[in-house]
Automatic annotation (TrEMBL):
Region (Domain I, interacts with DnaA modulators): 1-97
One BP annotation, GO: regulation of DNA replication
Protein known as: Chromosomal replication initiator protein DnaA
NCBIfam families: DnaA
Gene Ontology CC terms, in alphabetical order: cytoplasm; plasma membrane
Chain positions recorded as ATP binding sites: G174, G176, K177, T178
Source lineage: Bacteria, Pseudomonadati, Bacteroidota, Bacteroidia, Bacteroidales
Chief place of localization: cytoplasm
InterPro entries assigned: AAA+_ATPase, Chromosome_initiator_DnaA, Chromosome_initiator_DnaA-like, Chromosome_initiator_DnaA_CS, DnaA_C, DnaA_dom, DnaA_N_dom, DnaA_N_sf
Amino acid sequence: MKISPNNCWGDALALIKQNVTPQQFNTWFKPIAFEHFDKAKKTILVQVPSPFVYEYLEENFLGLLKQVLYRTFGEGVQLTYRVVTDKEHKLTQDIEADPGDIGPRKARNGANHSPSPMDIDRSFEIDAQLDSHLTFRNYIEGTSNKLARSLGLSVAEHPSQPQFNPMFIYGPSGCGKTHLINAIGVRCKQLYPEKRVLYISARLFQTQFVDANFHGAINDFIRFYQTIDMLIVDDIQEWINATKTQDTFFHIFNHLFRNGKRIILASDRPPVDLQGMNERLLTRFACGLIAELEKPDVKLCTDILKSKIQRDGLHIPDEVVRFISSTANGSVRDLEGVVNSLLAYSVVYNSDIDMHLAERVVKRAVKMDNHPLTVDDILDTVCNHFNVTVTAVNSKSRKRDLVIARQVSMYLAQKYTKMPAARIGRLVGNRDHSTVIHSCSQIENRLKVDTAFKDEIDSIEVSFKLKA
């Protein structure tokens, strides 16, 4: 009895299903549609929904595909992928892949080929997620940031130039990384409004990825990011040990890089110190420009303070400015926090801003020692603020006040400790890492729109420093 090609493909899928997990089968093999088998040429043609599926299959399941297809269709068969880039208009792209060849993939004409969704709809506008207040105009230059600032401005004004791609910026907390990468995006958007620019935190990217994977929309997720002209990702150290997120970003990175799109990354450490990051990602991070931002010195702190004072129309004596600059531990965030606190105290108590007030505020607003915060410290402070108990927060209760305190604790633990999400989850209510990621995302989104809530978080953070 002659077996039809369709039945052979069904047998192949059945064998594959026995050798992979249910999630792997549903994600990578179920979306494949068998189209045709050319017996004379020994060529199988299948449809896949995106180039990412093709690339992932070739990189992760090549050996399995070879064994299964040889067994069901015969020795020497070739697998051809038809990438459906636009179902509505039936736009496709054909790619050959020989299951016996682990080397470079070949297109039908025999040339080296890198698949890409050429027909993705780019007509819709996207929110760049940039902070319009963080610009080059108010990014004060000093010896600690001169090189990075200069190169960042060049990238913003000439985004299509191949030099310095990717741009990898690293430095300690509070040195101005987020300001600089935002300024690059804002300037690029000003000069090239048609460019699709997107700023995103690594944590939010990971949250989106987990959500897309859960809802079976991973291909849409990939396709969206492949349409970006300038992708800016902040705090990529958050992806350490997040293997699946790294794998997905690797493919997005490759597509953008191959197509001359701009990639800008920020981290609290250089690529060489990103232990737990995929080696193939690290080599790509290091192939462009690596720029370090150091903590601002006293002179730069003074210049930043004077600029902020002038911009906000404040009057602060020079001796107070010098005192704050020399005690703020080289952190721009601390500088801004001190000025905001000084203004608040002077308004509430109807007093002038002088050295006496400055000493009082700095003592409360600037952490003067190197004693690190622990999750227990954070839990105690948050629970005191919301008037709940640590035991209740660590319970399974879904009461609104406990959920908020729990989410805030996770958010602040992620911000102030070096612990991975899984460890934070175990220490705060014995939750898993996805709960921590979701909680941090919820708090970040609320901080953007709820000023009263932001004031509460600021108050809690000031309490950390009071305990120093």
